[in-house]
Amino acid sequence: MNKKFLSVVLFGALMAGSSVTFTGCIDNDEPAGIENLRGAKAELLKAKAAVETAKADYVTMQARLVEANVKAKEIENQMQELELQKKQAKTEAEIAEINALLEVQKLQWEKLLVEAKQELAWAQKSYEDALKAIELAETVVSESEQKILHSAKVYLVAAADDMNNKHDAMITAQKNLSNAYLNYDEEEVKATFNRLIASKEYEKTVKERSLKHLEEMLAKDFGTADWEKEVKELEDSIEVINNEIRGKQLEVTTVEQSDEYKAAKEEAEKAWANLQLAKVPADFSYEIPAAIAMNFNSTPNSAPADHIVVEGDKKFFKLTKEESATGVLDNIITPLVNTIDKDLEKFTAEWEANKENAVKDAEDNLEKAKEAHTKAVKDWKDALAKYEELGDYEVATDQAIVNKVIDANFKQAATPLTGSPSEIEKAAQTAARNAIATALHKYYTDVNAKVGLETAKFKINMGSVVGDVEKTLVDWLSDTALNGTYLNEIVKNWGTVDQFKNALVLGKDPKFITEIGENTTKTDLIAASDKAFGESELYLGKYQWLTVEPTAADIAQAYAKAYDDEVNSDADATDDEIKDALDEYTAFAVVIAEQELADAKLMPEQKTAYEAFKKALTDEKAVIEEHIADLKDTHKEADAAFVKMQESTQVIKDQITALKSSRTSIINIKNYLVQLISDAIPGDASTAQEFKDYVIGELDKVNADIIAIEKDINKLKKQLAQIEEGTYTDQMYIEYKKVLLDEATKAYEAAKVVYEDAQARLQAVIEKLTKASAE
User: Fold this and answer.
1) Helix or strand run (H / E) with residue 454
2) Which residues contact 125 (CB under 8 A, 6 or more apart)?
3) Model confidence over 122-156: pLDDT tens digits?
4) Phi, psi (rounded to 5 degrees) for 586
5) Is 206 buried (19+), middle (13-18) or exposed (0-12) by CB count in 10 A?
6) What is the pLDDT of residues 567-611, one digit of tens each?
7) What average pLDDT score do residues 370-395 get?
8) Number of Cβ atoms within 10 Å of the Cβ of 724
């Protein structure tokens, strides 16, 4: 969307700058002023659309960028904590467990870093599109409007710059915390604290300079101030800071362009490249014991597939001397050892104590699984027979039959006989009632046999001796000798034929029929089919219920497909989790129980096989690590030297950050003043007071910043003193870095609020100018 919009804006700009005139059969005598206004309106509308797009995209993507970055850094911190624990671990099992966790977290970490890069690209693109659109809009408005629009744009740029700097500072704080877990060196920490104290003291000086400037502004008479002159003075102050920033950036560049710096960087990169180029010292081959060979496949989703080689009826794990040593260590051997460790988890002390009973337990479980499957198959057969009997039967079929009888006889049956009715009239009414009663009885009987039916009990008075008797309608109407009498009670003063049918046929009056069943034989058959054999598409390739019982070979093939489907849908699922998901199908539960019985018989042999395979891998790992040990040491030393060179410029970079923060504050004041001037009503005294209040607010912020900086300096000095006394610990250093991360996160959140405010201000300016151009 942004690309499309940008091409439209650029085309508009080209057309605006073109001297080509298009003519046609209709003359256009529109005044040039109107054309200009129309052009201004169009460009402003484009700018407005771009800003709105950027506001939606940039803020959303920035938030997602931060989320991905923060999650990645949190995982990185956890990885560092685990590395620390690994150093302190006492047993091989503890180390194996930590290594397994590290491998999982590394994959998550790499995924999140990729996401962060993608979000950053999207966010930056939408923001840049908006700035380009605003630049085009600036070219088509008046000089005074240009100033207002430019001021709002500069305010946005400054806010974005500050927000991005705060974001970078937050990520740096995350990185520093990660490093603190493993890289506590007393002398280095002292040097870091001294650098931070120097940076903080410089930042305090810059803030005090800003404080003095704000106090001088407040000392002026705001009622008679020359606002244009004030804007110019603020711009001059900004330029002074810009010059300072440029000077310090030149200092950084000078260091980074120095031969010493370049040499250190080159050595670090060269040492890293040499380490990556190192190869496995010799070919390696290990025959995987038969007891565990089935757990290692030369197919995707197994660990690591392309190094498992099948030769006849045997499987081998192989490495070649052409492979990268570090790649094999990190991406092949470590994940494979983790996989073996995971498989070894089932060989617990509890298993050791009960391994004699393992086979018996597995046999019992298989027997239970078979019993459950036998019952499920019977239920499926019953459901199939019921479906074949009823097919697509609907209750409406029988309802139509009984309703036809009711329609034909209801008037005769329900109309009271008056006067002295003849025997013929009585007989006709009885016959009509008997016909309805017989039809209802058949309807109730047939529907109940097919899909089930419940009728309410109905009271009929059986005379002074017996009194009221309550039976279901089916019971009353089953007495064919007297059903006319009973029906007379039922239909007496009934109402219309539709009311009668609604109550006694359709079940719309709970006094008579409480529930009419539905034909659920198809859904019952599907459920029974799934329960017994698993989903039918595993057998048929489409969704349908089974009507033929599958063979054991069919079930085994369907289980293998279902297992692969589960793996593909959730690559992180464990074998036990997959089996738990599949054993709800009784046929698959039998397959799983059979596998577990086979495993139980093999487990003692498997444990020995796993341990032997792991030893072969760890021995080969030791050989490779010894082969590249010198290269690793060389890289570590070169990297440490280069990091020291980088730290030599960090004080200057900290000073640049402090200056940029001060510049942002002045830019905000200047833009606020420009906006006030543009909105002010001539002679309105409230404008001066509003600006004064704003400056007071900024002054309060600077005072608060200075207090916070002084506290930071005191904390750093206190920690330095503790190091000198020998009472400072690595855990204290970690906690300190956590506090800094928390502060950096809060600073970023505050900067994001300012940026969103800058977006809103720019939007308001464009809307105002758009409205003005329309008028």
Assistant:
1) strand 453-455
2) 2, 57
3) 566 667 766 776 776 666 667 777 777 777 777 77
4) -65, -35
5) buried
6) 888 777 777 788 888 888 999 899 998 888 887 887 788 888 989
7) 90
8) 11
If you ran DSSP here, which 8-state letter would residue 549 be given? P
Measure the CA–CA gap between 142 and 18, rounded to whole angstroms: 20
DSSP label at residue 324: B
- Our separate counts of H helices and E strands in the chain read 24, 7
Do residues 372 and 474 lie in contact, with contact meaning Cβ atoms separated by under 8 Å?
no
For 499-541, the DSSP string reads: HHHHHHTS--STTTEEEE----HHHHHHHHHHHHH--THHHHS
Helix (H) or strand (E) holding 675: helix 650-679
Lookup result for tokens 């439209």: 8
Q: What pLDDT shows up at residue 462?
A: 74
Res 26: pLDDT? 34
Give Cβ neighbours of residue 115 (< 8 Å, ≥ 6 apart).
64, 68
Within 10 Å of residue 587's Cβ, how many Cβ atoms?
Answer: 26
Q: Which residues of 245-276 are buried (b: 16+ CB within 10 A; e: fewer)?
A: beebeeebeeeeeeeebeebbebbeebbeebe
β-strand partners of 454: 515
Q: Which of 503, 525, 523, 530 is nearest to 514 (CA)?
A: 503
- Residue 607 tokens read as 């444990």
Residue 446 is which amino acid? D
Residues 243 and 7: their CA atoms lie apart, in Å, by 36
Return d(Cα 319, Cα 280) in angstroms, integer: 8
User: Using CA atoms, how far apart are residues 726 and 458, in angstroms rounded to an integer?
Assistant: 95
Residue 320's pLDDT band (boundaries 50, 70, 90)?
very high
Q: How far apart are CA 687 and CA 307, in angstroms?
A: 76
pLDDT beyond 90 at 415: no
Show Cβ contacts of residue 352 under 8 Å, excluding neighbours closer than 6 positions.
none
Q: What is the pLDDT of residues 525-558, one digit of tens each?
A: 889 999 999 888 888 887 777 888 888 888 988 8
Across the beta sheet with 314-319, what order do the strands follow? 284-287, 314-319, 308-311
Question: What is the C-alpha separation between 139 and 671, in angstroms, rounded?
Answer: 20
User: Cβ(475)–Cβ(465) under 8 Å?
Assistant: no
- Taking residues 96-120, report their average pLDDT: 52
Query: What is the longest distance spanned by two Cα atoms in the chain?
Result: 131
Please report which confidence band the pLDDT of residue 47 belongs to, taking 50, 70 and 90 as the band edges.
low
Structure-token pair, residue 495: 């109402």
Alpha-carbon distance values, 378 to 524, 525, 589 (Å): 13, 12, 16
Residues 420-476 have pLDDT tens digits of 888 898 889 888 888 888 898 889 888 888 888 888 887 777 777 777 878 887 787
Q: Output the DSSP codes for 592-623.
A: HHHHHHHHHHHHHHHHHHHHHHHHHHHHHHHH
Query: 630 pLDDT band (50/70/90 cuts)?
Result: very high
The dihedrals phi and psi of 455, each to the nearest 5 degrees, come to: -115, 145
Query: What is the predicted pLDDT for the residue at 3?
Result: 32
The token duo for 33 is 């002023």
Residue pair 48/766 in contact by the 8 Å Cβ criterion: yes
**Quick one: average pLDDT of 486-511?**
80
Cα dist from 483 to 26, 48, 89, 233, whole Å: 94, 84, 89, 109
